[in-house]
UniProtKB/TrEMBL annotation, chains A, B:
Keyword flag Transcription regulation: yes
InterPro entries named among the record's database cross-references: GntR_C, TF_FadR/GntR_C, Tscrpt_reg_HTH_GntR, WH-like_DNA-bd_sf, WH_DNA-bd_sf
Identification of the protein by name: Transcriptional regulator, GntR family
Coiled-coil region: none
Presence of keyword DNA-binding: yes
Taxonomic superkingdom: Bacteria
PROSITE patterns linked to this entry: HTH_GNTR
The organism's taxonomic lineage, starting at the top: Bacteria, Pseudomonadati, Pseudomonadota, Betaproteobacteria, Rhodocyclales
Pfam families assigned: FCD, GntR
Domain HTH gntR-type residue range list: 4-71
Length: 220, 220
DNA sequence: TTTTTGTATTTTGCATTCAATACTGCGCCG
DNA sequence: CGGCGCAGTATTGAATGCAAAATACAAAAA
């Protein structure tokens, strides 16, 4: 194993632990414990934590240590809001730049999602959905946009809201996807952009509403 | 001075050196030298470098050290492209959320810019311009958007293209600003967004063209 | 003269060590 | 009985030390 790989691996490893939900939001990161888990000393580990903090996945409190970032409701809303703009912009660019092969791949994913919807397999549907949006983002052919998108997406994934969509909303999301694919095929950038934006805003509303109903009962 | 402040100060300090152009793109960051300049040991310095690398201001080559990031022409174009979307979105949100005071402040900046334009003071105009766009971005009231915007802006500022706009283009930019202010006053989000986007795309074209003419002569 | 190769020096990456701050738990006092 | 203070411990932040890699340089051979 190369020498520098160590540091980057540590970043990637901890990031995975966070995004996979193994390290849930708010949990304290004990340096010593993580060192033993990852088999490295504190120096590279601390470097990794600083990096993850700049990525927004970790919060550092001076002299008190680091913890997995737990976003406030408003911050979650803000991330979704920005995501809506990035998705919309991705869609618009994708309409100009997508290749036939990429379009086919996206259509294939869409059909896969139709199947998963019919089969009522929500987790697989989510994974497929993520991949589809990723493909659109990649089709925009802008690596800076891509980086930004991926970074924000990780912050959201770290929160692990696998919302259990009710049937009506799921149906609607599927239908929206269908229309979005049509717009992409027609290379109608403006239309796709506005649909994607609306789609994400919708998602934001659903998840924020769910967060509120999930928190309130505990308080009462 | 607090204990943790040290690390963050190191990040801020080096970042300033880069954004101010004291450390120009491509230059190698000698750890030992920087340690002496900043009066810290290598540990916090290296942490800072890793952070700056995640911010995109520094490139790290394994076992070879760090250097101030020098973007390719395509990458610069990509950053501008994303900026155009962020500015547009900021404008749209600002139209919904801006306070009368914020609007007044922006109008004041605009008038200041008119004066500077008349006085032909380009550097001051640029600073004012930057502040105006910052204010719009802040008026969008989305801290995540703000963070992303600031980060990208720093990467561009590090490149230090203080382009010496010809009169016609400068006039045009000033006029566009006037129209943008009108749209903001009218709370016409869609209009402001499209204008801002066009404005930044314009800026991108100007700067990329200038980069090409600045590079080609050296090669020939 | 140019290239190549072997060595010395520098520089990077990581581990360890040291200092300072925060937490814990126990006794003491109110 | 409960709150407060103080010692002890743990944990964080930074400096130092050490091994591996890269660079620089010089001498020798083509």
């Amino acid at each position: 194993m190369e020498r520098q790989a160590l540091h980057d691996n540590v970043v990637g490893h901890i990031r995975d632990l966070i995004v996979e939900g193994i390290l849930p939001p708010g949990i304290k990161l004990n340096e010593r414990a993580l060192c033993e888990t990852l088999g490295v000393s504190r120096t590279p580990l601390r470097e990794a934590i600083k990096v993850l903090a700049t990525e927004g996945l970790v919060d550092i409190t001076p002299n008190k240590g680091a913890s997995v970032s737990s976003m406030s409701e408003t911050e979650i809303g803000e991330v979704f809001e920005l995501m809506s703009a990035l998705e919309a912009f991705s869609g618009e660019l994708a309409c100009e730049r997508i290749s036939p092969e990429e379009l086919s791949a996206i259509k294939a994913l869409h059909y896969e999602m139709l199947a998963l919807h019919a089969r009522n397999d929500l987790p697989a549907y989510y994974r497929c959905n993520q991949r589809l949006h990723d493909r659109i983002n990649e089709a925009a052919r802008n690596s800076v946009l891509r980086q930004t998108y991926v970074g924000l997406n990780r912050r959201l994934n770290a929160l692990r809201f696998r919302s259990n969509l009710n049937a009506a909303k799921w149906d609607r999301a599927v239908q929206e996807h269908g229309e979005m694919i049509k717009a992409l095929e027609a290379r109608d950038g403006k239309l796709l952009a506005s649909m994607l934006r609306q789609h994400i805003v919708q998602k934001k509303e659903i998840i924020l509403a769910e967060l509120r109903t999930a928190d309130k009962p505990q308080a009462s």
